[in-house]
Design a protein that fits this description.
Strand content: 5-15%
Distance between the termini: 36 Å
Radius of gyration: 22 Å
Bound molecules: guanosine-5'-diphosphate
Strand order of the largest sheet: 3-2-4-1-5-6-7
Order of helices and strands: HHHEHEHHEHEHEHEHEHHHH
Number of strands: 7
Shape: globular
Largest sheet: 7 strands, parallel
Structural class: alpha/beta
Low-confidence stretches: none
Number of helices: 14
Mean pLDDT: 90
């Protein structure tokens, strides 16, 4: 990309043109070397404009109501003058041949809104690859003036930890009465949560939702005794649009508290530092494995391992000795 083209893309993105933003994200997601270079040049220029958004992660099992909630929540925020970007992290997308997260057809009203930007999960074989790209997309969205970023992920596996490590506030959506096991709600997920929302608190479900709310609030009270933030447990109905404002209130309260105490700044620096090291680890591994001598030696060593003529420690050492060659 020439300097003039880059200028034009930068100007378009900063002025809030959605097509420029989409194009920049496509560059950042590309594995082509020249695209990566362009994306990095662009990000470097835009860096001073980043960091101002409220970064919110949202998770929950399929069917909990994530897309219904995000649509209603996004529209609520837009009504209050915010600009909302929805990104997704779904490392399984390359296996299933397409991401169901961040699909615009799941949020038709929100995607039609002028002040929204919705982007499906980047494809990628590894969670690390997907999350790196999402982090860069977040920065691009911030530079484009989106002041609330919603990062959606599915309620299974490692992707929740990954998303929690790139946001300021992590919201877990749940259902009442479905049983913790069924919902894959493990203690670990509760430890990541900054708030819990019991969705579908409508109709016959209102009382069960209220009970679940009290139980989880008591659990948090024990788990986070002495912590500066006790995650609120709220009931919502994405379908009826009730309880939505309370969730935003909790996010704003958390933001104010962690900004004043310096915790937000600390959390973000820590996240950046972790991201930096993850990139180094990934990059070193990829470059090392791409060397022809390493590839050849790996084939030999893997064969020896399979035939049990070499122990794993000796096998690893043989490969690692190549680092110095
Ligand atoms: P996702 O898989 O987590 O994105 O869940 P969806 O947003 O697709 O919702 C799954 C189903 O639950 C859909 O049939 C929704 O209409 C329904 N649903 C979502 N939110 C609510 C709610 O607040 N109340 C009720 N009763 N149904 C809901």
């Amino acid at each position: 990309m020439t300097s003039a083209e880059l200028d034009r893309l930068e100007r378009g993105l900063v002025s809030g043109d959605r097509r420029s933003l989409a194009k920049a994200i496509t560059l950042a997601e590309s594995s082509r070397g020249d695209h990566q270079n362009d994306a990095q040049r662009l990000l470097e220029r835009l860096l001073p404009r980043t960091g101002r958004a409220a970064r919110v992660g949202i998770t929950g099992v399929p069917g909990v109501g994530k897309s219904t909630f995000i649509e209603v929540f996004g529209l609520y925020l837009i009504e209050r003058g915010h600009r909302v970007a929805v990104l997704a992290v779904d490392p399984s997308s390359s296996l299933s041949g397409g991401s169901i997260l961040g699909d615009k057809t799941r949020m038709p009203r929100l995607s039609a809104a002028e002040a929204s930007f919705i982007r499906p999960s980047p494809a990628g074989r590894t969670l690390g690859g997907v999350t790196s790209r999402t982090r860069e997309s977040m920065l691009l969205c911030e530079a484009a003036g989106y002041d609330v970023l919603l990062v959606e992920t599915v309620g299974v596996g490692q992707s929740e930890y990954a998303v929690a490590s790139m946001v300021d506030f992590f919201l877990v959506l749940m259902l009442a009465g479905a049983g913790d096991e069924l919902q894959g709600i493990k203690r670990g997920i509760l430890e990541l949560a900054d708030a819990l929302a019991i969705n579908k608190a409508d109709g016959d479900n209102v009382r069960a939702a209220g009970r679940a709310r009290a139980e989880y609030q008591a659990a948090f009270h024990l788990m986070r005794a002495g912590a500066s933030w006790e995650p609120p447990v709220l009931t919502v109905s994405a379908q009826e649009g009730s309880g939505i404002g309370e969730i935003w209130d909790a996010i704003v309260r958390h933001r104010k508290q962690t900004t004043e105490s310096g915790e937000l700044e600390k959390k973000r620096s820590h996240q950046q530092h972790r991201w930096f090291w993850t990139l180094i680890e990934q990059g070193m591994k990829a470059r090392f494995l791409a060397r022809p001598d390493v590839a050849a030696a790996l084939a030999d060593v893997e064969r020896a391992l399979a035939q049990k003529t070499l122990a794993p420690t000796a096998a690893a050492r043989r490969i690692l000795d190549l680092v110095d060659k």
